[in-house]
Structures are given as C-alpha cells and as structure tokens.
Amino acid sequence: MKAVVMAGGEGSRLRPLTINRPKPMVPMVSKPVIGHILDLLKRHGITEVVLTLYYLPEDIQEYYGDGHSLGMKIYYAIEETPLGTAGSVKNAQQYLDEPFIIISGDAVTDINLQQVIEFHQAKKAEATLTLYRVPNPLEYGVIITDPDGRITQFLEKPSWGEVISDTVNTGIYVIDPAVLDLIQPGVPPTGARTYSPSCLKPDVPIWLCGRRLLVRCGRYREYMRTSGDVVHHRVQVEELGQHIGGNIWCGTGVEIAPDAQLYGPIYLGDEVKIKAG
Q1: How many domains does one find in the chain?
Q2: CA–CA separation, 152 and 61 (whole Å)
Q3: Are 266 and 210 within one domain?
Q4: CB count, 10 Å around CB of 131?
Q5: What residue numbers bound the domain in which 260 lies?
Q6: Based on the domain organization, do 45 and 89 belong to the same domain?
Q7: CA-CA 20 to 30 A from 254: which of 52, 80, 211, 220?
Q8: CA-CA distance, 192 to 177, in Å (whole number)?
Q9: Residues 50 and 145 in one domain
C-alpha cells in the first residue's frame, strides 16, 4: 500500500518557527516532525510515499530527495495554490493506482496503521476514516455515526452548544482510488466531507480508533506538549539518538564536561556542548 502525506502546511500559528521552513519541517526533538510520520509508515511496511507540497516545497524535496536514504521511494505532488485535503490528493492521482492511506505530515502518532488497513480490506470499503475520542472536540471536525459505524453527520469545529459527540476525525484515511474520480478538479471539497457516505455510498464503513493518538503540532501549546510526549516516551517513535543513560539522548558530535549534571529526560542535538560548571 502507498501513502499520501499531507505536507503543504505553512504553519502561520507556529511563527517564527515557520518563517523560513514549512510546518512539517519544524524540529520535533531529533528530526523534522514529518520524519516521525515517515518512520511510522516504514514500521508498517509502507515504503512508497507521495508528499503533497505547497509552502516552500524545495525545503522538503532537498531534505528527503527520492527517499533512497530512508529505504523508501518518495514522489512529490506540488500545488501552485492551496487545494485543501481532497484537492491535494486529487493532484497526486497519477501515483495512486491502488488503495492508499492518507496521513498528516505535521502529526506525531504511534497508531497501528496495519489494523486500520486490515479493517478497510476486510470490509471491502471504498473509504475508511479513523476516528478518536477527545475531551475537548471544539478544535476538530466532529463525526456522528450510527451503531454500525456508518457516518451519519459531519460537524466542523462546533461550539459547545452544538457538541453532540466527542468522536473526531484524525485525518487518517484509507481510500480506494475510485473515490478520486468523484472529486472534481479545480474546486474540490475539503477534509472529511469529501469521503462522506453522501459522496460515496450509504454503507461506507469507518474505524473508531480507541488508543492514544497524538496529532497536529499546529500551535505552540500542542508543539511543546508533543515534544514532551516524545522525550517522555508517551508516544513511541524511533530511537532519538545515542542513549547515554538516565533517559538522556544525544545526537552526533555532542561534548559533555565531566562535572556536568544532567537530569533526564533530555535530548541534546547535534554538536551541542555542555561546558564545565
């Protein structure tokens, strides 16, 4: 299975971190945030990836190239104007000739993608949306389902008076390429509504993900919290670097004075020097 990674975000709410870099390239402890998503895909055997780009696309292209250094094959679909979720995927249609997974490039998660894929295949679905329950659904697109797991309603970023569900869309989908033929190029719908039953069939199944999911580093508070989750191992990612004990991890070329006292969790980036005293 291939994956489409949505990596076109400008990240205006993370400025100044995103003035000279696209949001997916913001550092998340040991690597750009999109690097953790590529690691996740590779762990689940997904090595062919299409990155959809818009803001400063050359930064990502130069950093990852064709994916060879990661043991992956990376294609790029570049937008001249923002096309939204559905439009971005439609723009990458030339690479998508089999069912594929869609995931955000500015998210950090350890979700079991294989379970999502197996559910999609078992149900012979055209579209599977991965959902999650949250304590505060105001910042998300709320999804209403019937007892069989079929979507009955989408509600984008409701007010408290409109909240009738704590189940939200994570932005992780498995899609059959036939769905793309339903999306009109140029002015496509955005987000989960694109893959709703009204757009497809009344029996499109979804999967409700019940385990921890850490997503979207779009605001400073989320960015800081997710960074903390990574160094505290509350979300499983690849090794952060060289482990020197005491929950302390180092990049390359790190120098630590013999009398320095370090209290983990700490990640020391490349070429960091901890001086005496």
Answers
A1: 2
A2: 39
A3: no
A4: 26
A5: 242-274
A6: yes
A7: 220
A8: 16
A9: yes
Ranges assigned E (strand) in the chain: 2-6, 27-28, 31-32, 48-53, 73-78, 100-104, 127-133, 141-145, 151-156, 167-175, 207-208, 242-243, 248-250, 255-256, 266-268, 273-274
* Judgement on whether residues 158 and 76 belong to the same structural domain of the protein: yes
Nearest Cα to Cα of residue 268 among 236, 233, 237, 243: 243
The pLDDT tens digits of the residues spanning 165-206 come to 666 667 788 988 888 887 776 554 454 445 443 444 444 444
**DSSP assignment letter at 13:** G
Separation CA 240–CA 275 (nearest Å): 22
Beta-sheet pairing, 73-78 with 48-53: parallel
**Residue 231 lies inside a defined structural domain of this protein:** no
Determine, yes or no, domain membership for 34: yes
CA dist., res. 256 & res. 252, Å (int): 12
Please choose, from the candidates 180, 14, 9, the residue with its C-alpha nearest in 3D space to the C-alpha of residue 87.
180
Residues of the chain with pLDDT under 50: 188-189, 191-193, 195-214
Q: Are residues 42 and 87 in the same domain?
A: yes
Residue 95 lies in a domain: yes
Residues with a catalytic annotation lie at 157
Tokens in use for 163? 């909240």
Domain assignment of residue 234, yes or no: no
Based on the fold, state whether residues 101 and 186 are members of the same structural domain. yes
What is the bridge-based pairing of β-strands 167-175 and 151-156? unpaired
| 87 and 153 fall within a common domain | yes
Instruction: Say which DSSP state 67 is in.
Output: S
